[in-house]
Amino acid sequence: MIHEPLVKLCGNRSANDVEKSASSHATHLGFIFVRKTKRYVRPERVGQWIRRTRPKQKLVGVFVDPTIEQLDEVLSFVSLDVIQLHGSETVSNILQIKEAFGLPVWKVVHHQDGAVHQMELFKGVTDGYVIDSKVEGTHGGTGVSFDWSTVEDYVKIANDQNVSCFIAGGINPGNVAQLLAHEPEGIDISSGIETNHQKDIYKIQAIMKEVDRHVTSFS
C-alpha cells in the first residue's frame, strides 16, 4: 500500500491564491517571507488572508538566513506550523530557532555534489528536508527541475533520519506523474501551479488529480 504524498503549494501571494490553494486537499501551504523576491508577502497581509480563509492545511513560512527578530515578527502575525530555511543556515542557527520557537524546522538542500553529506550534517537537528534545484544566484522558485532518478537516495536518507522529505523545482501538471514514479514522500510546487503570476485552480486540480491517480494505481 502506497502512502499518499504530502503536497505543499508554495509561494501564495494574495487572498485569491490562498483561497485556491486552500480549496485543494494539499497538506501544506507555503508563504515566502524573503524580501526582494518576487513572491515576498508581508506577514500582516498573510495573517488577514488566513483569518478570512481558515485553511485546513499546515502553514509553512520560507526564510533565508533569518534573525530571531525577523521570525518573531512574522510569527506575531501568522501562526506557522513549520519554519523552512532556504539559506546558508548552520546547525547552531537551526538549534537556536528551534529553542526560541518550538516549531519544526525544514532545511532546503540543493541537488548537487555534496548534498547527501549536507543531509548527514543536519541529522538529528532538522525535522525535514526540501530538495531543490541548484540555480546560480537564486534560492529557489526557479521552475527548473533536477535529475529525479536521484529522488530515492534523498528519500532514503530522510527516512533513515525519520524526517520528511519534499522534492521541489520545476514540478508541473505535465511532469508530476514522472516524479511520482520515483516515490517522493512530498512534492513542493510554486511556479508550476501559476498562470500570469497567480495561482491557477485548474493547474492545482490537475496536480492533485495526478497524486490521487498515483495512489489509486498502487492501492
UniProtKB/TrEMBL annotation:
Taking every annotated instance into account, which residue ranges of this chain make up the domain N-(5'phosphoribosyl) anthranilate isomerase (PRAI)?
Answer: 8-209
Which Gene3D superfamilies does this entry report, sorted A to Z?
Aldolase class I
Keyword Isomerase, does the record have it? yes
InterPro entries given for it? Aldolase_TIM (IPR013785), PRAI_dom (IPR001240), RibuloseP-bd_barrel (IPR011060), TrpF_fam (IPR044643)
Note the superkingdom of the native organism. Bacteria
Q: Does the keyword Isomerase apply?
A: yes
Pathway membership: Amino-acid biosynthesis; L-tryptophan biosynthesis; L-tryptophan from chorismate: step 3/5
User: So what does this thing catalyse?
Assistant: N-(5-phospho-beta-D-ribosyl)anthranilate = 1-(2-carboxyphenylamino)-1-deoxy-D-ribulose 5-phosphate
Q: Keywords in UniProt for this one?
A: Amino-acid biosynthesis, Aromatic amino acid biosynthesis, Isomerase, Tryptophan biosynthesis
Which GO MF terms are attached to this record?
phosphoribosylanthranilate isomerase activity
What CDD domains does this protein's entry cite? PRAI
Query: Which PANTHER family does the record cross-reference, listed alphabetically?
Result: N-(5'-PHOSPHORIBOSYL)ANTHRANILATE ISOMERASE
Q: Which family does it belong to?
A: Belongs to the TrpF family.
Q: What is this protein called?
A: N-(5'-phosphoribosyl)anthranilate isomerase
